């Protein structure tokens, strides 16, 4: 019987930090998994290196579900981003190995393709309306068929989702912030100013681009349920594809209030880790899209269970896919998205060239659709030489304060 012979933890920083697991079997097969937790990378690296790798040696690499349960139940301390990102990386690596051994892409092991490719959205943004229009046009020229729109807010400086270059002129928001440094940078926030301004932006965008283009927006956890309902209602004339993270959903019942106020489609879950975080949201149909990443939600095995549960309630996927998900995590999302019936849309920001020199990918983006490709396994290879050229360096997501200095959700 083939056994797990080594579990390596690879840290690299080709412009941003990535944590990757590589499992090698006694037969010489290798598999990759993404364990990147933006801003807290070393905690996951230690969890894997010090507590997971030693206990997996000698295990059967084909026993994916059993290994998942061994790491989840066996830790005694369940859930949480560090634990679930660690389990996710091992899970992805074992699916990668299973595919390579079978000579099949992972989506074939999950039941096969349900569609030709995955509808994808990109990130448009700008300080002023003309820059937002330019940014949307850039995305349409690249082939995107759906676009997220984020805007600066009058009176505030740098805010979430708008490129620093865009604040001073044109420029594309093509990164998820990972600001190098030993402390987080600080941003400023005023929810009422944001709520007054945003509908004027969507009115202008709809006026310019017409009724067909799917438009998305991310509220990034900043509103109360009442505010979220008010904003959702104000945006209804502009027919959004979704309003994302309109309020922090740690209290799942709070989404009942939002639903009472607006019929706006809602997407939530990029900071969730397990099926339990979705229980009320799904069974009461309080959301329309599951935003989890394979990387932060226990891997393909666990996110597939969440999506099967969600399918009973007509809730679809909208998997998290900014550039702090490594190409390995992104590939895992594409294989899962291709194989589930209740796929909705996939977030996609192209990784930087230095990142793609470390991670050699085989997924494709054409006519606005992503496809994971047909290479056996996940279809991503890790270049050790390129990876070793960039060591870990500290970087943090920003923090966010109200204008009087009170800490707010970023
Ligand atoms: Mg988001």
What do you see in this structure?
It is a single chain. This protein is of the alpha/beta class. It is built from 14 helices and 20 strands. The chain has helices at residues 41-56, 64-74, 81-102, 106-109, 129-142, 164-168, 191-209, 225-235, 255-261, 279-283, 299-311, 327-339, 353-358, 384-388; strands at residues 4-12, 18-25, 30-34, 118-126, 146-151, 179-180, 186-189, 215-218, 242-244, 266-268, 289-290, 316-317, 346-347, 359-361, 364-366, 369-371, 380-382, 395-396, 399-402, 407-408. Strands 4, 5, 8, 9, 10, 11, 12, 13, 15 and 16 form a ten-stranded mixed sheet that branches. It has a three-stranded antiparallel sheet with strand order 1-2-3. Strand 4, helix 5 (129-142) and strand 5 form a beta-alpha-beta unit. Helix 3 (81-102) packs across helix 11 and helix 7 (191-209) packs parallel to helix 8 (225-235). It is globular. The termini are far apart. The model is unreliable at 166-172 (pLDDT under 50). The structure holds magnesium ion (MG). Residues 218, 244-245, 270 line the site of magnesium ion (MG).
Backbone structural class: alpha/beta
Main beta sheet, described? 10 strands, mixed
Low-confidence regions: 166-172
3D shape: globular
Bound molecules: magnesium ion
Q: What average pLDDT do the residues reach?
A: 95
Residue fraction in strands: 15-25%
How much helix is in the residues? 25-40%
Please report the total strand number as a whole number. Answer: 20
> How many helices in DSSP terms?
14
Ends distance? 49 Å
What is the CA-based Rg, rounded?
21 Å
């Amino acid at each position: 019987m083939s056994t797990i012979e080594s579990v390596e933890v690879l840290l690299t920083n080709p412009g941003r930090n990535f944590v990757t697991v590589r499992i090698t079997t006694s037969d010489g097969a290798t598999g990759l998994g993404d364990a990147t937790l933006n801003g807290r990378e070393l905690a996951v690296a230690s969890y894997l290196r010090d507590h997971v790798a030693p206990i997996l040696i000698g295990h059967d690499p084909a026993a994916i579900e059993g290994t998942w349960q061994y790491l989840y139940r066996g830790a005694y301390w369940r859930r949480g981003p560090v634990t679930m990102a660690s389990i996710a990386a091992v899970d992805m690596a074992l699916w990668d190995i299973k595919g390579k051994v079978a000579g099949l892409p992972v989506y074939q092991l999950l039941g096969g393709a349900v569609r030709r490719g995955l509808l994808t959205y990109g990130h448009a943004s700008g300080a002023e309306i003309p820059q937002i229009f330019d940014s949307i046009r850039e995305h349409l020229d690249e082939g995107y068929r759906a676009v997220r729109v984020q805007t600066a807010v009058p009176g505030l400086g740098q805010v979430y989702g708008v490129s620093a270059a865009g604040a001073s002129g044109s420029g594309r928001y093509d990164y998820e912030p990972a600001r190098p440094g030993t402390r987080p940078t600080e941003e400023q926030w005023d929810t009422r100013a944001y709520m007054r301004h945003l509908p004027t932006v969507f009115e202008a965008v709809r006026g310019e681009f017409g009724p067909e283009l799917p438009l998305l927006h991310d509220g990034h956890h900043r509103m109360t349920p009442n505010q979220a309902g008010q904003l959702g209602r104000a945006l209804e004339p502009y027919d959004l594809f979704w309003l994302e993270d309109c309020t922090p959903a740690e209290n799942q019942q709070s989404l009942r209030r939002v639903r009472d106020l607006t019929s706006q489609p809602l997407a939530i879950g990029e900071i969730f880790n397990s099926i339990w975080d979705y229980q009320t949201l799904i069974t009461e149909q309080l959301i329309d899209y599951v935003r989890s990443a394979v990387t932060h939600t226990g891997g393909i095995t666990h996110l597939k269970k969440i999506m099967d549960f969600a399918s009973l309630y007509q809730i679809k996927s909208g998997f998290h896919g900014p550039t702090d998900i490594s190409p390995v995590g992104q590939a895992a999302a594409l294989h899962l998205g291709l194989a589930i019936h209740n796929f909705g849309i996939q977030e996609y920001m192209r990784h930087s060239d230095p990142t793609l020199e470390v991670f050699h990918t085989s997924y494709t983006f054409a006519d606005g659709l992503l496809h994971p490709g047909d290479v056996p396994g996940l279809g991503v290879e890790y270049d050790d030489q390129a990876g070793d050229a960039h060591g870990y360096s500290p970087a943090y997501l920003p923090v966010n304060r109200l204008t009087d200095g009170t800490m707010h959700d970023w």
